[in-house]
Amino acid sequence: MDEKKEKRRAVWRMVFIVALIGALALLGFVAWRLYSDWKAEQDYKHAAASVAVTPEETPEPEPTETAEEIEAAEFTGERDGEAAKLPEGIFSGLGNPIDFAELRSINDELYAWIRIPNTNIDYPIAQSATDDLFYLNHDMYKGDRFAGCIYTESGNSKNFTDPNTVVYGHNMRNGSMFQNLHYYEDPEFFEQNPFVYIYTEDKIRIYEVFASYIYDDRHILNSFNFNDPKVFAQYLEDIIHVHSMDKNIRTELAEKIDNTCRILTLTTCIGSMTENRYLVQGVLVWEGTEEELDQAITDSNAEPETASTVIPEATQ
């Protein structure tokens, strides 16, 4: 009998030791993830504040997750992980602040930049030539990374001339990538932060946000033929009347949008609602070159009767 008791004690000791090792390993993993998120956010803030800095060397990709980990992850809910560090030398001045030659030297599939004031959204936009989902789990250096990269799919052109350009980004726990789109759930933030800026090498585009709301997880570009004016018109009408508890709509602006307009749809996940997405949508209100922007600012500061161009106040 004593021998049996001793064996049982030995078994329980082994179970306890294994459980303790597992718990310590889990705590270590969580601590590493938290540190990675914090470090990545500091890197992004540092890069975004660097203006007119000549790069000494472009960082090499440093994957932080294995292919097996990435394959096991789903594009749902909030995600942990480290966002890619932006290199020095990307911001080159005012007006169009992006050095696209430097950006292309890092990755020739980086073709645009998105910036939303009063958020952390200040990132390059990529589009893969071979795989629409590549940047779901690859960063701006094409390295494996949970945070991925802000991206569009091949169903959209790279010149933002489509009726609806859809831009994807992860909802990261550390507030990076497109997590800050959820700020638009707050009606006050929605009202006070109406503009989204898209930069490409040849043009600056300003969109005014007209709607934010919870939507289902359907693939928007595959679900609607936006090149059909009737389909696009009905889609715009449905936005105004969308059933969403957290929706915010600039009704007066939304009602002026028709199928001749171009809209931008920013989409990200919702942590507790894996079968839904959060959308922020804007309509193009200004587009032009850096020189045209300078002239527009000059005109907007002139007397109203002599001003030839009107631009959003946030540009000045």
Report on the architecture of this protein.
The chain has 316 residues and is α+β, with helices and mostly antiparallel strands. Helix content is 31%, strand content 20%. It has helices spanning 2-48, 67-72, 100-106, 187-192, 220-223, 229-240, 251-254, 290-300; strands at residues 110-115, 122-126, 150-151, 164-168, 195-199, 204-216, 248-249, 263-270, 273-288. Strands 1, 2, 3, 4, 5, 6, 7, 8 and 9 form a nine-stranded mixed beta sheet that branches. A hairpin with a 4-residue loop joins strand 5 (195-199) and strand 6 (204-216). The longest helix has 47 residues, at 2-48. The chain is elongated, with a radius of gyration of 23 Å. The N and C termini lie far apart (86 Å).
Give the ordered list of helices and strands: HHHEEEEHEEHHEHEEH
Q: Specify the biggest β-sheet.
A: 9 strands, mixed
Shape: elongated
Low-confidence regions: 43-64, 70-74, 304-308
Strand content: 15-25%
Number of strands: 9
Q: What is the number of helical segments per DSSP (H or I, 4+ residues)?
A: 8
Helix/strand-derived category reads alpha+beta
Helix content: 25-40%
| Distance separating the two termini | 86 Å
Mean pLDDT: 82
Q: What is the CA-atom radius of gyration, in angstroms? A: 23 Å
